Amino acid sequence: MNTLIFRTIAPLLVVVMMVFSVFVMLRGHNEPGGGFIGGLIAASAIAIYGMAAGPSAVRRALKADPITFAGFGVVLAGLSGLLSLAFDVPFLTGLWVDLHLGDAKVPVSTPMIFDIGVYFVVFGTISAIALGLEDDEEQG
Amino acid sequence: MELSLNIAVAAVAIAPFVAALAAPSVHRAFGAVSGWILALVPALIFLFLCSFIEPVAGGRPVSASLEWAPVHGLGLSFLIDGLSLTFALTISGIGAFILIYSGPYLKGHPHQGRFFAFLLMFMGAMLGLVLADSMVALYAFWELTTVTSFLLIGFDHTRQIARRAAIQAVVVTGIGGLALIAAAILLQRLTGSWELSGLGAIDLRAQAAYPVVLVLILIAAFTKSAQLPFQFWLPNAMEAPTPVSAFLHSATMVQGGVYLLARLNPALGGTAMWGTALVVFGGATLLWGGVSALRQTDLKQMLAHTTVASLGLLVLLIGVGTEVAITAAVLYFVAHALYKAALFLVVGIIDHETGTRDITALSGLRDSLTVTFIAAVLAGVSMIGLPPLIGYLAKEEMYAALLTGAWQPLLVLGVLILGNALLAGVALAVLIKPFMGVIVPLPKEPHEASIGLLAGPALFAILGIFAGFATSWVGAMIVAPAASAIAGASVEDHLVLSFSPLDPVFWLSVLTWLLGGLFYWKLEVIRTALRRGQTAVGWTFDKGFDALMFGLIRRSGAVTRAWHHGQLELYLVVLFGMFALAIIVPLWSLGGLPMLPDAVELTFYEWGVVLIAVIGVTTVVAARTRLFAILALGIQGFAVALLYLLFGAPDLSFTQFMVEILSVVILTLVMTRLRLDRQDLRPFEDLARDGGLALACGLGVTTLLFAVLQGSLDPRLSDFFNANSLAAAHGRNIVNVILVDFRGLDTLGEISVVMTAGIAILALIRGARKSRAPVVPDATPPRSRRSRSRAEATT
To answer: What is the pLDDT of residues B395-435, one digit of tens each?
Structure first.
C-alpha cells in the first residue's frame, strides 16, 4: 500500500480533498452537501495522508489532537444557537446577515456556523479514530 | 430596556462562568495577586444585586427571562425576590472574599489557576440556583453545584482520602439531584408550568400525588443540606482546601437544600406531613451534629459538625413555619453564613500559620495572631449568641417562635435550647483553646497572616456586629422581604434589639449560655465518653455508605459478567436475532404479509446497479480472505449509493459513498490491528446459524419495504418542508435545512453523541495498546537525528 506513487500523490490529493470538503460544506444549504459530508471528506483526506506519511506526521501537521476539533465543533454549534439569546429569540433560531463584499452579496447565518460545527465534529471524530488505528499499525 | 434587564440578570449567573474560563490565564499573568482581580467579578455582581434591595423590599420582585423553547414553555427565567436576593447577596459577597483569601492561602500551588476557575464556576452555578425561576434551570444549576463541589473536594486529587470524599459527596448529592428532577417533572404535570412562581396555580396539598412530590423534595433537600441520615458526607468534604469548606460546605452550597425547602414552603408547606418531617429530621440532625462536634479534636471537623447542626436547625425552623419562626430562619441563615465563614477562614489561617489544626496541640496564639484572634472572638460570640450580635437576634427570635402553651412546641424548644447550647460549647472551645493558655511549640513558628487572609474573616465578623446594631434596616430591607417570600404572604418587620430581664425569652438565652459553658467546661470528659461510646457501637454512617457502595459494585459486576460475557459472536447472534424478530413478528401478526409486485420494469442502467449489488453480495459470501470480503462489502454499499442517486436523493447518496469508503478503510485498519487469521474458518453449524440469521434479516427488511410501498405516503411533512425550506430558512437543500435549522436541537444532540463516542473509541484503542505493549515515547529520535546531522555538518 505504501508505494512511492501513493506517497507522492497523497499530499496533492489531500490538499484537493480538504478544499473540496470546505466547498461541499459551504454549498450545503442550497445544493447537495453540508457539514456532515464535508467532514467525512476531510476525514478521509486525513486517513489517506496518514497512510501515506504516517500518523505522527499528520498529527504534527494538524497541530492539535484531532478529538480537540470535535470538541471545538460541539462548542461552536452550541454557541451559534446561544447567539439567538442575545436577540431575545428562542435557542437555535436562525439569524441571517447579508454581507456586501463589492458587488457580491454573501448571506452569513447562524445555521451556517452550526453547520461548520457539525463539520468539525465529524472531521475530528473520524480522523481521531482513523489516526488512532493507524498509530498502532506504525508501531506494529 | 426590558431586554437589557433580562440579559443583565442572566449575566449574574453567567458572568462567573466566563470569568472561570479566564481565571487560569489571569493567574498565569498575575500569580497569587489574581485573587484580588478575580474578586472583582463577584464584587460587581454584589453591587448590581444591591440595586434590587429597595424595589424588592418595596414588594416588587423582579423577574427576567430569556426564551429557550417557548413551544414547551421552557425558558431561562429568573426571579429576584427577598429570598433569592438574600441568598445571592450572601453568595457573591462571601465569594469575593473567598477568592481574595485563596490567593495567599494556596500561594505557589501548581494548580491555583484551576482552583480559581472551579470556585468561580461554583459561584455561577450557585447564583443561578437561587435566582432561577424555571425548575429546569434550577435543576441544571443544582447539578452544576454538585459537579463543582466534587471538583473542589477532590482538588488535591493525589490524596486517596480526598478522592473518596469527593466521590461520596457526588453520590449522595447526586441521588438528591435525581429526586429533584423527578419532583420538578411531577410538579410540571400537576400545575402545567415549569416556573416556580407558577406553582400556586392549584392547591398542591390537595393532590393525590402530594406525598410523592413531598418525599422527592425532601430527599433532594436532605441530601444537599446533609440532614440525617445523609449527614455523613459533609464532614468528609472537609478534605477540600479551607476556602472551599468555608464557602461551599458551610455558607452556601449546603444551604441549597434549605433554600429549596424555603422556596417551596408556600406551595407545599403547612401540612402536618411537611411540618412533622422537617421538625423531626431537622431536630435530630441538630442534636446529632452538636454532639458529634464535641467528639472531634480537628478544628475543621468540629466546625463541620456544627454546620450539620445549623442546617438541621434551619430545616426545623422552616418546618415550624410560623411567621416568627421563618423570620428567625432568615436571620439565622445570615448570621450563620457570616460567623461560620469567618470561623472556617480563621481555622484556615491557624492551619496555614502553625501547620496544625488539632485543638489539643494548639495553645497561646493570642499574641502572635492578634487580628485573627479578634475576628475569631467576634465570630464566635455571634455563634454563641451574645448581644448585640446578629446571632443573638436569631436565637431570641427562634425561642420567641416556640414559646407557646402547647407541649409539642415546648418539646421542640427544649431541642433548640440543647442544640444551641452544644453549638455554644463548641464555639467556646474553638475561640478559647487555640488562642488562650500557655505558648506551646508548634510545627511552624506562627506569624500574623497577610491582609488577603485577614480581610474576609475580619469583615464578616464586623458585619455580624453591624447587623446587630442596624436592626431596623436589616429587618426591613433583608429579613422581612425574605421571610415574606418564604411564607408566601407579607411578613411585617418587627425586629428590635432588646434584652429585658422581664422577657422570658431572655432567660432562655441565659440558660443556653450556662449549658454551653457547662459543655465547654466538661469538654474533655464528654469527648472521652463519646469516643468510648462510638467504639462500643462500632458502626458509623460512613461505614454503612462503604458497605452499600461495595455491595452495589459487586452486584453490578455480577450482572455485567452475566450479560457481557465477551463473546462477540453471541452478541451479534442475539442482536440480529432480535432484529429479525422485531421486523417479522409485527408484520405477520398485525397486517399480514404484503403482496408481491406483479412485474418489475427496470431500465438498463437500473439493471446495471442491481448487477453490481449482486456481484458485491456474492463476492462477500464467496470471498476466501477477510480483507477481500470487506472490500466486496464496499462494492455492495456503492450499489446502494447509486440507487439513492438514481432516485433523487443526491445528499443521501453522497453521504453513503463517503461512509462506505471510510467503513472499508476503518474496518481494514481494525482487521490488521486484531491480527486475525486471513481466513474465516467456521464449522458447518455456525455457518448454518449465521446464514439463517442473515437470510431472516434480509427477508424481513425486504418484506417491510414492500409493505411500506403498498401503504399510502403521507405527504404532510414533505409538503411542509417544501413550502417552508426557502421561505423560512433561506435554503433550497431541504435535507440540510432540516439538519441545521428545523431540527437543529436534534443535530446538536447527535454531534455531541458523535464526539462522545469518538472519545470512547479512542479510549478503547489506547487502552488496548497499553495493555499489549508499553508505548515507547518517540521524543528522543528526532533530537538524536538532529544532533547527528549537526555532527555531520561540522565534519
So the answer is: 888 888 888 767 888 888 889 899 999 999 999 988 888 88
Chain B segment 9-38 residues within 8 A of A by beta carbon are 10
CB-CB: which of B3, B70, B744 is closest to A114? Answer: B744
| C-beta atoms of B740 and A136 within 8 A | no
Query: The domain containing residue A31 runs over which residues?
Result: 4-139
Half-sphere exposure of B198 (CA within 13 A, CB side): 18
| Prediction pTM value | 0.76
Residue B174: its H or E element: helix B160-191
Q: Among residues of chain B, what percentage have pLDDT more than 70?
A: 95
Lowest-pLDDT range of B39-43, B216-220, B272-276, B505-509:
B505-509
Contact B188, B228 (CB under 8 A): no
SS3 content of chain A, % helix, strand, coil (to 5): 75, 10, 20
Q: Convert the pLDDT of each residue in B307-337 to its tens digit.
A: 999 999 999 999 988 888 898 899 899 989 9
Grid cell digits, residue B694: 442473515
Residue of A nearest to B662 (CA): A44
Q: Phi, psi (5° rounding) for residue B52?
A: -90, -10
Q: Is the dihedral of CA B581, B583, B588, B589 positive or negative?
A: positive
d(CA B433, CA B354): 14
Non-local CB neighbours of B657 within 8 Å, separated by 6+ positions: B638, B641
The CA–CA distances, whole Å, from B258 to B80, B413, B661, B769 equal 17, 20, 58, 49
Q: How far apart are CA B358 and CA B575, in angstroms?
A: 60
For chain A, count helices (H), then strands (E).
5, 2
B263: its cell numbers = 422556596
CB of B116 closer than 8 Å to CB of B35: yes
B283 phi/psi in degrees, rounded to 5: -65, -45
Report how far apart, in Å, the C-alpha atoms of B70 and of each of A3, B181, B193, B331 are.
Answer: 59, 20, 12, 38
What's the CA angle centered on B81, arms B79 and B82, to 5 degrees?
Answer: 150
> How many other CB atoms are there within 10 angstroms of residue B199's CB atom?
20
CA distance B36 to B29: 13
B733 in contact with chain A, both atoms CB, cutoff 8 A: yes
Of B388, B276, B258, nearest in space to B326 by CA = B258
**Which residue from B461, B444, B296, B303 is spatially nearest to B373, judged by alpha carbons?**
B461
- Please report the pLDDT score of residue B784 as a whole number: 41
Q: Is residue B681 scored above 80 in pLDDT?
A: no
Q: Is the distance from CB of B495 to CB of B323 less than 8 angstroms? A: no
Q: In this structure, how many other beta carbons lie within 10 angstroms of the beta carbon of residue B686?
A: 13
Nearest residue, CB atoms, A67 vs list B673, B740, B759: B759
Give me the number of domains chain A comprises: 1
User: Taking chain A, what is the end-to-end CA distance rounded to the nearest angstrom?
Assistant: 15
Interface A-B: count of C-beta contacts within 8 A: 164
